[in-house]
Each structure stands twice: as structure tokens, then as C-alpha cells.
Amino acid sequence: MNRKLLDILVCPLCKGELIYRKEEKELICKADRLAYPIRDDIAVMLEDEARTLSLEEADALSKKPAHGNPFDQPAGV
Prior knowledge:
2 helices; alpha+beta; single chain; six-stranded antiparallel beta sheet; N-terminal domain of TfIIb; 19% helix
């Protein structure tokens, strides 16, 4: 995914920060508990296309250390 695009993307609902999960090909909004898919290197930033994170997934994201997995980081980093 294009790094410059990742730097400017925000959640279309709350305008909050997104977490880029490269392995899962998703951009995650922790505030709204939504995972937006990335298809063919294009982020699909539509609420109807996003999957809702389970409570367990959302809790796991909240508990990860700030410098943990390099693929699970804010999109602008």
C-alpha cells in the first residue's frame, strides 16, 4: 500500500487514526471497532464494506505495546 496514502487516511466515520495491518490487508479503526479491507493495494473506506471487530479483537489491539508488531501500527507511522 502506498505510504503517502497511509499518511493521510483516517476513518471515514470518526476521522480517527487507523492501524495498518499489512498481513491481514486491513486498516483498523479502534474507536469504531471497524476493519476496512485493502484490495489490490486500494483501501476500501466504505462502512458497508468494513467488518466489525469482535470485542476480543478490539481488546487485543488495546493491549498491544506501542512498539510491537511493525505491521500493526498507526497508518501514518
